[in-house]
User: Fold these one by one.
Assistant:
Number 1:
Amino acid sequence: MTYYIGTNPGDVNSSFIKRYFYGLRRNVDGELFLISADQLSGEDNSITINDLGESEGNFPYFEEGIDYLDGITDEHILVYENLRYPQMKWDGRFLVYYIDDDGQLTVRINKGYNYPPGISAEGY
């Protein structure tokens, strides 16, 4: 039997509020990319927040658990030029985003999705 002083791993897991990170970006060709990372997966979940560039173009306010959705102006100009994901969200739920048959960006909560053949859910 294992004993813990203070909080045990089960308590930490059940009280972990913002477990998943989701980052959304669009490339110069208009393609949409979404990255997701599970902090409890045990895998290397390194995420690049700022791409290389002049320091004044960096996003200086990244904080774990804090959403940021104001990274693009109404004119579709990046607020921080080096910010890789101008929209980022933290959530305690597992979210799966996909494009439905009507071309709409759709989300499933705590439920997987089987992508059609030839469409990759990997990479960013």
Number 2:
Amino acid sequence: MARQVPAGYDGPTMMRLLSILLLPTALSAQPLQERLDRVKVEQYAEAPGYSEGPTWRNGELFFCSGALWRVDKDKKATRHLELSPAGTYLKGDGSILICDNKTPALLELTVDGKVNVLAEMFDGKKLGSLNDVTVDARGNVYWTDPHQASRENPVGKIFRLTPDGVVSMIASDLAFPNGLEVSPDNKHLYVIESQTAKVLKYDLPADDKPLGPATVFHALGGSGGDGCAFDAEGNLWVADFSRPDRKQGRIAILSPEAEVLGYLNVPAKMVSNITFGGPNRDEVFMTTGTPNGVFHANVGIKGFAGHPGKAMKVLRELQQ
């Protein structure tokens, strides 16, 4: 049945009303690249060296640069823990997982400041290098080990730790596995293989199974990627490390269908990693090299909070 125009509303008036009603839809449908081109990217904190592994927690930012650094709400950066960390992850309880290469071990920084060792051995040997870390919806923790891996020598590995303390190597023969994230729907694990400049996609396996074969989700090209993070819509924001043509890094935003939605240019030679933060989780913090530190941009796009994780079996407390 045809809708009738209410009394007193002529055709032009109705058109104006419709245009107002449709305005938010028109704005939300605006190409992402146009929005990103207007975003201001500024340095948020300086660091003594190349930086990576950012995590935002309650107004404070943690990142890795020869130690674990903390940037307080007044943007004052201080050395927080004398470790040799490469990656961090914020759990739902406020604790922070840390890939540490000083111990070496997977660590947990609790809200009250304790540093717990969660994993330090596999198959009777001490862990090698730990690079980046993430968590799935079942509470399993995943990290990459790219030690001595390259395109010519693909010996990189991916490990998994279950909440009850079981460590498994679930993938090997990778050409420098780097950043990794579990999709918001908990169906896939995405891994950046830096030396091939590819983003790999795996089906998330059962807790007692290794990863199956990977598919190439996206070919970055250039110098390859490093870290990554999901937004709330399931788009993957990838640190596109350094573009040889621009001598500058950027963030590439990929849809769940691997379509390139846009790029956020960062005024640094290298962009290593990214996390969402801010009171509304619609700001991004990006670790960099040259200049070394953290850059910030208010993108107005909400990030995925990450899977909250579970209480983990603690091996021992690390004394600082």
Number 3:
Amino acid sequence: MSIELTPELETLLEEKVAEKVAEKVKETVERIREHDYQMTGKLLRNMKERYGEDVYDVTAKTYGEFACQYWKKRAEDHGDNSIESLIELLWETLPPGFEYTMEKTDAGTQMYCTKCPNADRALRLGVEEQYYHVICKSDWSIVEGFNPNIGFTMTKNLMKGDDCCNHFYYYKDKILKNLSNCDSL
């Protein structure tokens, strides 16, 4: 006995199957990310116990070198290495789950990230110390690679238990020019 499907039912069935497949893929990707965070965290924790704090410095430097080269290429390919372009390429393309606000001032651009899936996962799994060195410390290298004239500060960090990450971007030459103007007063 075979069942004849109308085109409408066939389309509905295809949509439901596609939804279920997408849901399973999302669950699988999340399990892989969880496993990756746990294993990387454990590896770095064990290496720190054996070799000391320098392990975190080497980790941050290694990830930073990669980030610097990657974002240098992004700026070249984009043809614009302004702060606005960095924010467009970095912040405005973040995957779902990030929450942030932006405030432009005369001195630069202030970003306040109040929700970060990376920090949420690292804190939940107890690997925030390790992932701070893997993810967050690369922020300086991203900026340096994208445009060496862009300065960057961050004094608060979600992975360190703060209420936000406060990324501030500014032009170094503009700050130096303003300082030199103050000297002539």
Number 4:
Amino acid sequence: MTKTADTRDIILNAATERILHYGYAKTTMSEIAKDCGMSAGNIYRFFASKIDIAEAMARNFATKVFQEYSAIARDKSRPPLERLKGIFQSELERTYELFAEEAKVLEVARVLADERPEFAQEELAQSRLHIVSVLKDGVETGEFCGETNLEDLAEMIQVAMVKFMSPEMISHCDIEQLRRELDGVFDLITYGFCAKRRSQVCE
């Protein structure tokens, strides 16, 4: 790791610690610089603004999330339908737990949604890659119907499941209610493209 990367990580770690303790709005670049033992001018060499630090925090979190999605998508020991549901279950559990344990993270998420909406779109596009991967496996095994454009289908699945991707941004339901709703919505939407479920309905 280069000295530049080391310095950037030092700044990001200090900023993350302060933001998680005091909140995004109550944190200043000068305070972050003081925590790092450097000048505010040096901070701006690495992060042009506080919102850039917030985005970097979110990217660190997203990297871990996508690693988990990838592991779920590649687990061929589980049928595609189970893996598809597993991606959304994983997202619900992780984000719900994060916002419950770190209330200040929700503040950062809301600021990013307002000031960097393109970041959210980028995250959705990244997670769609894993959804499409599972859908392709399902088509190949005959579990899913293959007459639909899989990229479009993945996008519509995300639209239908959006409540469970960032639950605290949308509702204040407890985790048991959210799990029950996820099961119901997932069952409903997968009837549309799950060949096995279609045949069961027609019998």
